[in-house]
Amino acid sequence: ERLEKQITNPLCLVADFSKPEAPLQIHVAMLALNRFQESFGRGPNIGCPQDAEEMLKIAVSISETLETRPQVNGDVVKWLSRTAQGFLAPLAAAVGGVASQEVLKAVTGKFSPLQQWLYIDMLDIVTPLEKMGSEEFLPRGDRYDALRACVGDSLCQKLHDLNVFLVGCGAIGCEMLKNFALLGVGAGQDKGLVTITDPDLIEKSNLNRQFLFRPHHIQKPKSYTAAEATLNINPCLKIDSYINKVCPATENTYSDEFYTKQDVIVTALDNVEARRYIDSRCVANLRPLLDSGTMGTKGHTEVIVPHLTESYNSHRDPPEEEIPFCTLKSFPAAIEHTIQWARDKFESSFSHKPSLFNKFWQTYPSAEEVLQRIKSGESLEGCFHVIKTLSRRPQNWTQCVELARVKFEKYFSHKALQLLHSFPLDTRLKDGSLFWQSPKRPPFPVKFEISDPLHYGFIVSAAKLFAAVYCVPFTEKDLSEETILKIISAVKVPEFRPSNKVVQTDETARKPDHIPVSSEDERNAIFQLEKSIQSNEALQNDLQMKPISFEKDDDSNGHMDFITAASNLRARMYNIEPADRFKTKRIAGKIIPAIATATAAVSGLVALELIKVVGGYPAEAYKNCFLNLAIPIMVFTETAGVRRTEIRNGISFTIWDRWTVYGKEDFTLLDFINAVREKYGIEPTMVVQGVKMLYVPVMPGHIKRLKLT
């Protein structure tokens, strides 16, 4: 509807269902503020009671002219009057994100427009400041005057003196740093520090939403670059940058001592496992955690405060739906299935197998020793696959191309022939229906054509990757069409021999962990290893491979070339519509759709909760939020209160509780158990630390442990 009509009869989106009347009350207060400015040619003065009274009178008169005659909320009007000259940057970011999405809707016609007003209030922040003197809010002539008008000088100082650890400098991380800069977080003269970490380098695809980065920053570390850009916004900030992952492997860098120095931890990650790990460290060290995430136009925020709320680990997301193993292996029906198959082939051939190969030869340093052990009947885990890899190891570029050509035949011809051998086209099920019916598509072997760009592309990309993992050098000339054609024309491709292996058709079956080894395989392994040793192809250099980690954004590494070619060849084999490189990259790289509007909104909301955490606000002040800017919807909810477990009368605990028992140097396990019994009046039945069982009376030998310190 037109603005004229909506002013007198507003339709508002309710964001907080604990106060459904709030949007109309704010609508009246905002109209009163506009009228005040028109009447007096200025905004209400900071903390001026006379201006607040005047605005209240205007609000009452406006309310009577509206069709719904909403009730005037004196507190809303008073606080709007007191803070009208102020500016709360994170609130602007949140509203700005929503407004920007509405602009995009108007320009593109995509998604639903807002029906029709959205009001967000942060009365939770200002109401507890009621008893502060008006001088707290008055300007001091620095860059924080507008912030001070909203939250007072004491809270400004607390923000400046804050130690905050930000994990992740991607889209949300960049926006968070902007908010920190505008709030002066970590800018105190003697105290305060922002610590940031992110192991990633800046990619071109980041530039559409990670707004601290520019084209000349590509391939530079995100954390160092983000820190530098943040200091351009506010040079007074103190920032420490790291490029480490936060995981058990970096516990020396991010120790318990490090965590206890932090006042707040903020996560800006899309990795669930990393978030769970950080949450466990926050709980262990009694530190508040602010978490958030986005997916396209959707976003969420979560506040975790010691002793007041549940933690991130208190709830579990439903597991992602996996593509059944038999669908991936034999019966793909969609391009997503062939892309995942190609991705799995990449992991298996160029990462997993080379890693197992290296691990094996670190355990058994020489081929001669392994041969001796197998001959004596010893079973060495993984040795048959390792010996097979060693015996087929390419020694030069020609052999890399030959190996790629043989793999082409195996993946895209023999596989189809084998399936059609196991299940001919006229195969019927027990109920008489055809085996090959939707969604099962029968495969048809792909005949190799060197002139087909897809076939040629697979050979070149696979050969380059084999050369990389087997440490085989190659030149530009080796990559020339002439050289590749010459090598391929001389390759002896093995003929198809049907096998009687059982093809898995059960959709609930999972990929087997271990494939059993036959006695024939054992005899072959001995023969192959003897042959490798005799021909000097099992020397120290031959016992090493170079595993490759998949990297979707580096076009020069050939990773996406291989996955695109392999996926589309398999799609062709099953008569599935192929996908271009961009779609393949999005699916294979698990690229989560992202847009700057949702990122800005989410990080603004997190920064508002940060102010409450710094102010030590009560549990009811904190709000989690879920939003979807496409619909649009925005829902604020109170945080889940922490669950208390009762042991017996007078003794209970939550996830945040710690009992400390102090022992001397000769303090034994029995002393510890007795101390707990005496101090808390409970009988310990077992003692564990993490996943380690220190003392379980029924376990053999554990009684002896009672004497140990």
UniProtKB/TrEMBL annotation:
It is an enzyme of class 6 (ligase). One of its GO terms (cellular component) is cytoplasm. GO terms for molecular function: ATP binding; ubiquitin activating enzyme activity. GO terms for biological process: DNA damage response; ubiquitin-dependent protein catabolic process. Pathway: Protein modification; protein ubiquitination. The keyword Ion transport does not apply. InterPro entries: E1_4HB, ThiF/MoeB/HesA, ThiF_NAD_FAD-bd, Ub-activating_enz_E1_C, UBA_E1_C_sf, UBA_E1_SCCH, Ubi_acti_E1_SCCH, Ubiquitin-activating_enz. Keywords: ATP-binding, Ligase, Nucleotide-binding, Ubl conjugation pathway. It catalyses: ATP + ubiquitin + [E1 ubiquitin-activating enzyme]-L-cysteine = AMP + diphosphate + S-ubiquitinyl-[E1 ubiquitin-activating enzyme]-L-cysteine. SUPFAM superfamilies: Activating enzymes of the ubiquitin-like proteins. Belongs to the ubiquitin-activating E1 family. This is E1 ubiquitin-activating enzyme. It comes from Eurypyga helias.
